[in-house]
Amino acid sequence: DYDKESLLNRFENDCYDALKQGISVNPVLHSFQRTVKKYHIPEEHISAFLTSMKKDLVTKCYDNQRDAQEYIYGSADIVGLMCLRVFCNGNNSLYDDLADQAMKLGSAFQKVNFLRDLKDDTEILGRYYFKYINLNGFDEAAKMQIIEGIEDDFREALKGLRRLPGRSSTAVYVAYSYYLALLKKIKNSPAEEIMNKRIRISNFRKLLIMMKSVIMVQLNIIR
Asked: 76: buried, middle or exposed (CB in 10 Å: 19+, 13-18, 0-12)?
């Protein structure tokens, strides 16, 4: 019930002011502006992210692929690119080589989140991020069409993940493995169940996924 638009606009102004001044009394924005400057994150990445966040204030239904992809680009693909700037730490050639795969991974994560949160997004927020989902419902055919696209994103992203430098490959592979396991669970759950509850991975299984992922990276057998 708060004035969300005013609050978001104020946050955006504070963010750009922190970048300009090199300091912020907001500790999160202060840390962010330091990271932006240290790793030369382009301002257009930040602008694209905030643009997608603003869309959540007004856009409820993404009924065509182009609009949905624009939203995902700003809310997820860009996050992948910003993280990649940090991981590559000045190696612009490697960044350019891995940029497409980084965006694919961002897209995959975001789309899995959409499926996981389908109940709340549609029933509480009234948002529809996939053109295959509408007020008429969500069935197995729609579920599989969405999942096939996400699986393609994961396959492409893995190619780049294998080439990430240093410790970043371990961290990203843990996240990759978790989201892939979540996607598999969603795939094996009936469409009706996905619409009626939030699919999740147990904490114990999360721990196993993390341990297995770390070992696989150590042994250089990422797959």
From this structure: buried
Separation between Cα atoms, residue 98 and residue 194, nearest integer Å:
33
Q: What is the DSSP letter of 202?
A: -
DSSP character string of 70-94: HHHIIIIIHHHHHHHHHHHTT-HHH
Predicted TM-score (pTM) of the model is 0.90
- Comparing CA positions, the residue from 151, 175, 178, 186 lying closest to residue 80 is 175
Helix, strand, coil percent content, the chain, rounded in steps of 5: 75, 0, 25
SS3 call for 24: coil
Q: How many CA atoms lie within 13 A of 219 on its CB side?
A: 9
Structural contact between residues 53 and 15, judged by C-beta atoms closer than 8 angstroms: no
Tell me: pLDDT of 87 over 90.
Answer: yes
